[in-house]
Amino acid sequence: MATTGDVESDKSESKDTTDSPQAGKIDILLKATGDAPILKKRKWLVEGEKDIGFILNFVKHSLKMERNECLFIYINQAFAPAPDQKIKNLYSCFGSDGKLILHYSKTPAWG
């Protein structure tokens, strides 16, 4: 389960991390899609070695979802990455403006 040491809130919206994320951490922007509740904090710093499964668990925990409820994560509003995909690999392929934008939904939305 996600702990406060694993995921940090990024309080500075104007921080520039375009070239290299600080200490292996990557800016993640989480956007709600469809009927998913909106998170109070949307921008987070996550270690690049974490995988999408970690993000799934973190978002489910943050939204106080039951274990049996489904949550879908999408990149570029097009495809759902495998739960074992590393954040740093997805960032290097699909990151833009210094962050990786992930959309989450409780129902299938794209792809």
UniProtKB/TrEMBL annotation:
PANTHER family: AUTOPHAGY PROTEIN 12, UBIQUITIN-LIKE PROTEIN ATG12. It comes from Tetranychus urticae (Two-spotted spider mite). Residues 8-18 have a biased composition (Basic and acidic residues). Residues 1-22 are annotated as: Disordered. It holds the Pfam family APG12. This is Ubiquitin-like protein ATG12. Belongs to the ATG12 family. Coiled coil: none annotated. GO terms for biological process: autophagosome assembly; autophagosome maturation; autophagy of mitochondrion; glycophagy; piecemeal microautophagy of the nucleus. GO terms for molecular function: Atg8-family ligase activity. The keyword Cytoplasm does not apply. Gene3D superfamilies: Phosphatidylinositol 3-kinase Catalytic Subunit, Chain A, domain 1 (3.10.20.90). Ubiquitin-like protein involved in autophagic vesicle formation. CDD domains: Ubl_ATG12. GO terms for cellular component: Atg12-Atg5-Atg16 complex; autophagosome membrane; phagophore assembly site membrane. SUPFAM superfamilies: Ubiquitin-like.
